[in-house]
Specification:
single chain, 2 domains, Rossmann fold, 381 residues, six-stranded parallel sheet, alpha/beta
Length: 381
Amino acid sequence: MKHLLIVQNVPTQFDVPLYNELARSARFRLTVIYTQARREGPGIDAEIGRAPQWDHIGEACYSHVYLTPAQARRSAEVVAMIAGTAADLVLISGYYPPLHQKLVRPLRRRGFSVGLRSDNTLAHSNFRGLKGLLKKIILPVWLARYTSWHPVGTLARQYLEAVSHTRRRTYLFPYNVDNAWFAGESARHREHRAQTLVEMGFSPDDFIVLGIMKWHDREDPLVLVRAFRQLLARQARARLILVGDGPLRQNVEQMLEGIEDKVHAPGYLPYSSLPGLYGLADVFVHPAPVEPWGVSVNEAMACGVPVVISSGVGAAADLVEPGQTGFVFPAGDWQDLEDKLFSLSVDTDRQSMQAACRQKMRDWSYETTRIAFERALGVID
């Protein structure tokens, strides 16, 4: 049986369920090496000043190893550890921590196939000045060392091809979510949607706009709040559920003054609460001006919720089909965002859009990722 070995820094809320599924269903063996020391639960997220509550993650049933801090400082020891596995493909997630970069050349010298998982995009990269010039010189040489590329989506693939001036065997390794779990849980909650909205102080007939984000400049909740305030002037049924926390809390609260009865802002919530919120929503908004992907877009669409997302969100290129699964608005343009929300509130074949969202997510599932790995390993053509 072929053996895939993935090297990444820490477990994430979306990769761990994927790896569990691969351990159950894939036609290859999987091992994951985590290169940063194991913690009891996820570490503090610097952008919100607290640890994420990934309470949906069960026990890991895939083969995995956590490096100690001492091991992570000795790249030769890690190379020897990997060599002992005789893996058919070593897939390294990004360039951080620096250990990831130090593994590539020695593994290639030993004859290993080494792939790169990348979410970099041209729009989110800085090639200005001396530092940018050095990147343009070094990156083509560096990227040529990998035998295959595993970008998270179309924009990430375009970045690799444009920066390297060459091509490699390419297999998508997206930021998947558990589509079936999100769909099932949101559907269960949707059965009680009317009652839940009444408990929030809303009406079952209200048009529910949902935002789930860090209250941080990088995800820019203020654009959504500005757009929502304007939407209220045209759509009296509009209501906002705004989930999150972060350094912009005071700014958000000030901007919500006077419309508190139109808004439900429960703060930061555990991950297991999210499907229930998607089950209430008529539309999901992700306003981040700079986001290489945007996993919450996957989550919403898996629940059949149309999305309106910023042009700065990388998922827009692959997941948003205008008028079918949602819309894209120019990053920072709250007036355009409001216009698209109003359009959805008055002139929408909601059932058709819900079906289109679920259909799109069939192409961005655990199964499609498993098939991409099997192709990369030569298990299937």
